[in-house]
Amino acid sequence: MNLEPIITDLLDEIRGTIRYMADSGVTGFECRPETLETIAKWNQPPVPPVLPVLPALSGVEGIGVEGSAAEGSEAEGSEAAKKASGQRAEDSRVEEPVRSSETLEEIRADLGDCTRCRLCENRKNIVFGEGSPQARLLFVGEGPGGDEDVQARPFVGAAGQLLTKIIGAMGLTREEVYIANIIKCRPPNNRNPQPDEIETCFPFLRRQIDAIGPEVICALGKFAAQTLLQTDAPISRLRGRFIDYRGIPVMPTFHPAYLLRNEASKRDTWQDVKKIMGRLGLPLRKTGIRR
């Protein structure tokens, strides 16, 4: 058996993970026995906690967990119990996908000239999202950058150009998918979004997801994946498999901005993208992700 391809893939994965950790500010490794014991458990699928009921916004029904709080807790608890017993999260479809009668235009009108959190103080524009209201595939990123803030459109900078190429490699166009972010205003100096900012803005994305009813969500990067899946697991552990979000399979993968700095991880992302294509019944291509 030729082990060279396996070893090469393993080294690429280790390299990509170390680069990601370095970009995240990690400067060393701590190797106490209890730490190693924790790391040994990382090959287990993450168990999302029970999501709290989100409050309704501006009197619009359908925000938060559908049904009563008890029903939501029971459904989420049952899912957590199944995963804790060893069932893989991949391809898990324990809930029926939610499709709301609310339109994207109605959600945008309710959002208005939002001043619900501090991000309104420095933004130029709200970046609501764009694409097909009937999209089968929804891409979710972290938040707007400088170019997005100016143009009021998601993913239009260098990372956006790479995302457009990824979408094209799938045989799709930006007009056929939908692209949005966890937060809709640019954080100052492109800093990471704060928990209270995410908590304030995420209900609007949740409503967008319910209005579109996508068949698959692609979570781009750590913040998108962790927010949707309610976990603090690193993206390097989450990526590569489908994880359920309220009946919709989510494929976490690396953010395009990360790929611009880490060419080696493009191969991993293309493998993730091919799984999405397979789920959607799209013809698989050999092109891959190019510069």
Compact overview of the structure:
The chain has 291 residues and is an alpha/beta fold.
Describe the structure.
By secondary structure, this protein is α/β, with parallel strands linked by helices. It has a domain at 90-291: Uracil-DNA glycosylase-like domain (Uracil-DNA Glycosylase, subunit E), CATH 3.40.470. It contains eleven helices and six strands. The chain has a six-stranded mixed sheet with strand order 1-3-2-4-6-5, with helices on both faces. A hairpin with a 2-residue loop joins strand 5 and strand 6 (248-253). The longest helix is centred in the N-terminal third of the chain and has 20 residues, at 4-23. The model is unreliable at 51-94 (pLDDT under 50).
Produce the secondary structure layout:
Blueprint: H1 4-23, H2 33-40, H3 69-84, H4 104-111, E1 130-131, E2 137-141, H5 146-151, H6 158-169, E3 178-181, H7 195-212, E4 216-220, H8 222-229, H9 235-238, E5 243-245, E6 248-253, H10 256-261, H11 266-280
Parallel strand pairs: 2-3, 2-4, 4-6
Antiparallel strand pairs: 1-3, 5-6
